[in-house]
């Protein structure tokens, strides 16, 4: 147990662990210290200096984010001197900042804007020393605007320490130092996996998703187009936050109503193809188990993880399920099955996906995902972009009457909805794989061992007729490295994986913490959203993917059975080896159906 110390903050006596910094102690006890570079989820960088405090007996102010507490410490967080110091720092930052707040995507969410307002800084009265630089628009997912960058270092910390991708760095020295990609080659030519965690932690609008709102509006307003929309599981537990609803409020039927008001011709749900993914991926897993395969099966739903695997672990690509993600399954089916069932020319269908994820924009443009004969998914909007569309349309989301989705590809089970939380894909797969192996239903559907925010989770499931099935779950790419390094080492030394089935999600917390989720997307909010998905799971009449009646119907009327020739053609894919230095394709490393 940590030793406690006595400190005083603004005259208030506190007992706190001696392992804390001043800012952590203040936050724990409801004392707010202004900050800009500091974020509670990340190691402090002490770059901005805004969090300075006065300590009795210390001649100069200290940065609260990196100064540990000590016995008897007496701290002042607000004084005339500190206010002047902070205001001067913010004025210096704004003088070298592109102050275009009304048109910035981070407007009213920008931490610099909020801090400047709180300190009474008037940007109009400040001299401008900004040397405007070109905006990096090379990436299919993420735009980097150096003119809005304040060099806080958060993006570097999350990219290098949390995700271990190393796509962003601090370049040059002294007054000329600035955030950049390696060798200044741009995001598209870096190892970036498009996960978007940099956009989540950026305090300004310097990093943002590549917008596709106008393209979607153009399609909706084109009378010759039939626009179909799908929404990922985690969107329904984050969308309401920007409209005054409680954190983690589950709003699927308000979401359907809002999308219909916006003008989409058909409102469906990605959760349907999450259930379909389980049938394809689960059948693939069971086939490996029955064949005594020594190499594991690893989930393939997270596009950031897939690009990470192609970049850093292409030698293990044959361990990754060939099943497409639920989004891409929905995209290809919207222009084949849905078009056939509704007698619509697939050339006139525009398939739009609402995702919590910036990497889905990259996934939609992968050239191999055109099995419908067209680009399977035309446009991807993040949760943030949908929020902007709802506001632009003048929709009162909080008071919107609930509506049902359109039938066909929208019914979902509880297994489908928990895809949005780390461990959810694994739990959904276990619920159906047990049935696929034994022909009997799993009696206890809540697999607690794979839930929660522990970085790597392991469990063993006893399956009659097979024995012990060992599984692992990792979220966040630094944790993915831990799992993949162990798999690689074990295969090299013993020829056998430590686990039979592995789930990996690129983003900490899973899709509830995706790079396209609302601003303020910290670990605490991710945990709350995940719990809400499990609450919805428990409330649904069907909780296993193989019991989804629309999934049963699509196999009967169109696909035949899991891993059928048509299912393999439409619902499965292949992978590449990418250069670690720039993320570009080097060679194809798997064939489409070799796993079957």
Describe the structure.
With 596 residues, the protein is an alpha/beta fold. The protein has three domains: 4-78, Ubiquitin-like (UB roll) (Roll); 97-209, Alpha-Beta Plaits (2-Layer Sandwich), CATH 3.30.70.20; 214-588, Rossmann fold, CATH 3.40.50.1780. 33% of the residues lie in helices and 14% in strands. It is built from 19 helices and 19 strands. Strand 3 (52-55) and strand 4 form a beta hairpin. Helix 2 (80-95) crosses helix 3 (111-119), helix 8 (270-291) crosses helix 10 (326-334) and helix 8 (270-291) packs across helix 15 (424-438). The longest helix has 22 residues, at 270-291. It is globular, with a radius of gyration of 25 Å. The model has no long low-confidence stretch (mean pLDDT 95).
Briefly, what is this?
The protein has 596 residues and is of the alpha/beta class. It has 19 helices and 19 strands.
Question: Within the largest sheet, what's the order of strands?
Answer: 2-1-5-3-4
Biggest sheet details: 5 strands, mixed
Number of separate helices: 19
Number of strands: 19
Q: What's the helical proportion of residues?
A: 25-40%
* Shape summary: globular
Radius of gyration: 25 Å
Looking at this protein, list some descriptive labels.
596 residues; alpha/beta; Ubiquitin-like (UB roll); Alpha-Beta Plaits; Rossmann fold; 5-stranded mixed beta sheet
Write the layout of secondary structure elements.
Layout: E1 4-9, E2 12-17, H1 22-28, E3 52-55, E4 62-63, E5 74-76, H2 80-95, H3 111-119, E6 142-144, H4 154-162, E7 169-171, E8 178-180, H5 197-201, E9 207-209, H6 213-220, E10 226-231, H7 252-262, E11 266-267, H8 270-291, E12 297-298, H9 303-312, H10 326-334, H11 337-342, E13 349-355, H12 359-364, E14 379-382, H13 383-392, H14 414-417, H15 424-438, E15 456-463, E16 467-475, H16 477-493, E17 501-505, H17 523-539, H18 549-559, H19 565-571, E18 576-578, E19 585-588
Parallel strand pairs: 1-5, 10-11, 10-13, 12-17, 13-14, 16-17
Antiparallel strand pairs: 1-2, 3-4, 3-5, 6-9, 7-8, 15-16, 18-19
